[in-house]
């Protein structure tokens, strides 16, 4: 297979692409999380839902969607699976049945203790100090917010 010439513009090199660095880092992070979350019986998106509920139980589906940047078409199947596994309950509001409250069950609250090891495993695998990871997380969030405009 013939090799093509290096682009005259270094901005067109794959290794100079921020999007590729973020994408490949995301793939590596997903690979790291998979066995950790398998032990908890959760997928990564389900883990994110549980994190939000462990921070503040009893949120509305719309609040969960806003916090996770997920639409209801994506979030509803996740919630149904979490409910079927006994980790959450979904309760329609009496005053407006379109509004659905999501609460942790006893099993969902108990799972939090088992999930406590996940952040430490991620920190160790990153080979970064805690302050480095905190700073990196802050920078990526700032980038996300700027891009979202």
UniProtKB/TrEMBL annotation:
<keyword id="KW-0804">Transcription</keyword>
<feature type="domain" description="HTH marR-type">
    <location>
        <begin position="15"/>
        <end position="142"/>
    </location>
</feature>
<keyword id="KW-0238">DNA-binding</keyword>
<dbReference type="InterPro" id="IPR036390">
    <property type="entry name" value="WH_DNA-bd_sf"/>
</dbReference>
<dbReference type="GO" id="GO:0006950">
    <property type="term" value="P:response to stress"/>
</dbReference>
<dbReference type="GO" id="GO:0005737">
    <property type="term" value="C:cytoplasm"/>
</dbReference>
<dbReference type="GO" id="GO:0003677">
    <property type="term" value="F:DNA binding"/>
</dbReference>
<dbReference type="InterPro" id="IPR039422">
    <property type="entry name" value="MarR/SlyA-like"/>
</dbReference>
<dbReference type="InterPro" id="IPR036388">
    <property type="entry name" value="WH-like_DNA-bd_sf"/>
</dbReference>
<dbReference type="Pfam" id="PF22381">
    <property type="entry name" value="Staph_reg_Sar_Rot"/>
</dbReference>
<dbReference type="InterPro" id="IPR055166">
    <property type="entry name" value="Transc_reg_Sar_Rot_HTH"/>
</dbReference>
<keyword id="KW-0963">Cytoplasm</keyword>
<dbReference type="GO" id="GO:0003700">
    <property type="term" value="F:DNA-binding transcription factor activity"/>
</dbReference>
<keyword id="KW-0805">Transcription regulation</keyword>
<dbReference type="InterPro" id="IPR000835">
    <property type="entry name" value="HTH_MarR-typ"/>
</dbReference>
<protein>
    <submittedName>
        <fullName>MarR family transcriptional regulator</fullName>
    </submittedName>
</protein>
């Amino acid at each position: 297979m013939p090799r093509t010439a290096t682009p005259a513009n270094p901005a067109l090199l794959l290794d100079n692409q921020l999007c590729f660095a973020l994408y490949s880092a995301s793939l590596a992070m997903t690979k790291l999380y998979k066995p950790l979350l398998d032990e908890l019986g959760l997928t990564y998106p389900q883990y994110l839902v549980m994190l939000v509920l462990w921070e503040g139980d009893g949120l509305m589906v719309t609040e969960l969607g806003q916090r996770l940047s997920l639409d209801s078409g994506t979030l509803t199947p996740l919630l149904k699976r979490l409910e079927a596994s006994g980790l959450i309950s979904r309760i329609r509001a009496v005053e407006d049945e379109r509004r659905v409250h999501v609460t942790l069950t006893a099993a969902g609250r108990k799972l939090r203790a088992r999930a406590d090891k996940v952040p430490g495993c991620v920190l160790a695998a990153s080979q970064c100090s805690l302050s480095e990871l905190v700073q990196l997380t802050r920078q990526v969030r700032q980038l996300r917010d700027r891009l979202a405009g």
